[in-house]
Design goal:
2 domains; 54% helix; alpha+beta; 311 residues; four-stranded antiparallel sheet; Endonuclease I-creI
Length: 311
C-alpha cells in the first residue's frame, strides 16, 4: 500500500466533530472526483471513480447516512497496472437535485457551482472535514523517505483558490500550479505538510512523517560528520606528503643531524608515522607538544631549508 493510500485509509476513519462535517466532507469528495451528468430539468446522475477503497467506502457511507441514495458500486481490475478501480454510480433519483444543492454542488437556477460551498464551512471543524474530503478525493503525498511533497488536484480555478483560502484559514500556506486543465494545490514544506495532516485528523500519519524526518536529520548529521572527517583526512594526508618532501629536501641539503633538536624530532616522527595528524604526532613527542607547537616546527623547518646559504 502506498503512503498516500495509508493516509487516506486513516482519514476515512476520522469522524466529524459536528453533524455538518459529514456534508462538508461529502461535498468535497463528490465535487472533486465525481462526474455530473444532466438530462433535462431535475434529471441528474453522478459517477465517482477512484482507485482508493477508503474513498469509495467513505463516499458510500456518507451518501447513505445523509441522503439514503442508491449507490451501485462496480469494482474493476486493471491487469496492466494490477490495480483496482471503484466506480460508484448515483443514478437519476427524484431527490438527487435537492441533495446536490444541499452539498453546495448545484446552485438553483444556475447549474454547477464554480466555487467551494462556503455555506457549509462556517465552523472550523467543518473546514477541516472539507479539506479532509478534498485530500481523499484528489490528494497525493509522496513517501516521506523521499521528498516532502503533498498536493490536491482539483478542476476549476475558482474552486482551487477557494480551497487555498480554506487552507490559509487553517494556517497552511499552499501554492498553486496549473497542470493539463486541472489545478494542483501543493505543499513542499515539512512543517506545512505535518500541520495539514494533523488538521485533517491524520495523527498517526503525521507521527510517521515526523519519525522519518528525524531519521533523515540523523542521517544527514552523520553524513556531514563523515564528509568533514574525510575532508580533514584528505587535507591531513596532503599536508603530510608536503612535509615528507620538505624533510627529504632538508636531509639532502642540510642533513638531519644539523637541525635543532625539536625540528629533528618532528622529522623523525613524521617519517615514522606519515598517516598521523600534527596533533597525534605532538602527543608522541617527549615532552608532548601541542598542534600549534608542531606547526611552528614545520614552519621553522621550511625557513631553514629556504634560507640562503654560503656557497
Amino acid at each position: 500500500m502506498s503512503f498516500t493510500a495509508q493516509v487516506k485509509d486513516e482519514l476515512s476513519r476520522v469522524e466529524g466533530e459536528c453533524p455538518l462535517c459529514a456534508y462538508a466532507q461529502l461535498s468535497a469528495i463528490t465535487r472533486i472526483c465525481g462526474t455530473l451528468s444532466f438530462r433535462g430539468p431535475g434529471r441528474y446522475s453522478i459517477k465517482v471513480s477512484t482507485e482508493t477503497g477508503a474513498v469509495a467506502r467513505t463516499m458510500i457511507k456518507l451518501t447513505h447516512e445523509l441522503f439514503d441514495l442508491e449507490t451501485p458500486l462496480t469494482v474493476r481490475h486493471s491487469n496492466l497496472h494490477k490495480t483496482r478501480n471503484y466506480l460508484i454510480e448515483i443514478p437519476e433519483q427524484d431527490e438527487l437535485e435537492a441533495d446536490l444543492v444541499r452539498l453546495g454542488i448545484l446552485v438553483p437556477g444556475h447549474g454547477l457551482s464554480s466555487g467551494i460551498p462556503r455555506e457549509l464551512l462556517g465552523r472550523e471543524c467543518c473546514r477541516r472535514a472539507f479539506v479532509r474530503g478534498a485530500f481523499m478525493a484528489g490528494g497525493f503525498i509522496a513517501d516521506p523517505r523521499g521528498d516532502f511533497h503533498l498536493e490536491i488536484a482539483v478542476t476549476g480555478e475558482e474552486y482551487a483558490h477557494g480551497l487555498m483560502d480554506v487552507l490559509a484559514n487553517m494556517g497552511v500556506s499552499a501554492r498553486l500550479n496549473r497542470r493539463r486543465g486541472t489545478f494542483a494545490i501543493y505543499l513542499k514544506s515539512f512543517d506545512e505538510i505535518v500541520r495539514l495532516i494533523q488538521a485533517m485528523g491524520g495523527r498517526r500519519s503525521a507521527l510517521a512523517v515526523e519519525s522519518v524526518r528525524r531519521m533523515k536529520s540523523l542521517k544527514n548529521d552523520v553524513n556531514r560528520r563523515v564528509n568533514a572527517e574525510m575532508a580533514n583526512q584528505a587535507r591531513s594526508t596532503g599536508a603530510a606528503a608536503d612535509q615528507l618532501a620538505l624533510i627529504d629536501r632538508a636531509e639532502r641539503e642540510l642533513g638531519l643531524r644539523s637541525l635543532p633538536p625539536a625540528v629533528r624530532e618532528f622529522c623523525e616522527l613524521r617519517r615514522a608515522h606519515p598517516e598521523l595528524s600534527l596533533s597525534a604526532l605532538g602527543e608522541m613527542c617527549d615532552p608532548p607538544a601541542s598542534k600549534s607547537a608542531m606547526y611552528h616546527r614545520v614552519l621553522r623547518l621550511e625557513a631553514l631549508v629556504s634560507s640562503p646559504r654560503d656557497e
